[in-house]
């Protein structure tokens, strides 16, 4: 049986895990580790960061199937927000029914920078010329720093420079950029190591040959990564989107309008993108990647033309009844390096994903982002976001007032059916009534 035919939400947690074993996603040890909820041990946490006192848990779940480039992916997601996986699964189902999404990595290069200051205006041409003429040697020097990366087919690819800032308004900087192919690693540490070697070499030569006052301010990767882009797209038959009393075509038309709104209104664009990040962060986190880097890079990219805009865009062709979605994201992800290899949960999650390459992971992230956005927009422009959200939030409310095990589902259902406004007091009262009835029975 394939993962897509199982209604996982109706299974117990143990049965869900066992079915992943039967489908070949997990081995027996991994299943046991999940059943025992053995995430990150305190001992390992203590090795990973300073002043550790333990590890912080998040719910881990999965989307059973998303088709990306005709291949099925089961997608692990770590998130505390009740509706995220339900929405991603719903959006994925619609995309899958229409043949899945297509995704492509156009480039996968990490960019780093070294900033210099203290030069005079008349030095500027010489600085540029110096680097231009020395490019091949500098690239070779960069690659000597990390021969193992070169041996894997990666390494420093381009060097280019610019001047930023005005001396009249403070300081003028000479900035050297380096693009690096970090292969399967995100590459932040590798990049920083290379840049520091180049920085020391360059500042010494600038001081010696151009101006002794020149200083290097810093050398570090940039989390703005427009040289590492992935695009995912999909086409959906409008008639499959009906809901909230609207025909499918009307919903599709309204999704296209919602997409336009996110291009012109910053308030909407921010929430549009937050919904997209619900999916991206959950998958990036589950695979042990640096989600702060991903967040920073994506938001910078969303405002690349000076206006902050929605990342995913949708258009509707009424005649063909086709809704087309597309998203382009800058992503610097790894399947090795950082804490990925050390985190046992990240390793299990990479197995669940089928051990993707870093570029494949970029494509899955972009596909998931589209699915997440489709589900959010469809709910928003059809029945409204609260209909789906609240039934899941009621479970949180039940937990907040102290419901245990089976009480949670029963109380959540009672809150959903309530004819009077829901509040914590109401939840407490219903829970007390439920317990009193239970005591009467026993
Ligand atoms: P690492 O420093 O761990 O370097 C990558 C490691 O992966 C190397 O040890 C390399 O081995 C190994 N490796 C094994 N197989 C491959 C392969 N196929 N391709 C590439 N490398 C391979 O990690 P990164 O350089 O990726 O840095 C990521 C970390 O840096 C993250 O933890 C991130 O949070 C952090 N960071 C982020 C910053 C930011 O975003 N601003 C700033 C500073 C750090 P070998 O050495 O043999 O080549």
Structure description:
This protein has 442 residues and is an alpha+beta fold. It contains 15 helices and 10 strands. It has 3 domains: 62-106 and 229-383, 3-hydroxy-3-methylglutaryl-coenzyme A Reductase, Chain A, domain 2; 110-221, Alpha-Beta Plaits; 389-440, Helicase, Ruva Protein, domain 3 (Orthogonal Bundle), CATH 1.10.8. The longest helix is centred in the last third of the chain and has 24 residues, at 358-381. Helix 5 (124-145) packs across helix 7 (188-209) and helix 8 packs across helix 12 (358-381). The strands form 3 sheets. It has a 4-stranded antiparallel sheet with strand order 3-8-10-9. It has a 4-stranded antiparallel sheet with strand order 5-6-4-7.
CATH topology heading of the largest domain: 3-hydroxy-3-methylglutaryl-coenzyme A Reductase, Chain A, domain 2
Proportion of residues in β-strands: 15-25%
The CATH superfamily of the largest domain bears the name: 3-hydroxy-3-methylglutaryl-coenzyme A Reductase, Chain A, domain 2
Count of beta strands: 10
List SSEs in N-to-C order.
Answer: HHHEEHEEHHEEHEEHHHEEHHHHH
| Strands in their spatial order, largest beta sheet | 3-8-10-9
Derived from helix and strand composition plus strand pairing, the structural class reads alpha+beta
Mean pLDDT: 95
Low-pLDDT stretches are: none
Q: Specify Rg, calculated over alpha carbons.
A: 26 Å
Give the gist of this structure:
The chain is α+β, with helices and mostly antiparallel strands and 442 residues long. It is built from 15 helices and ten strands. The strands form three sheets. A four-stranded antiparallel β-sheet has the order 3-8-10-9.
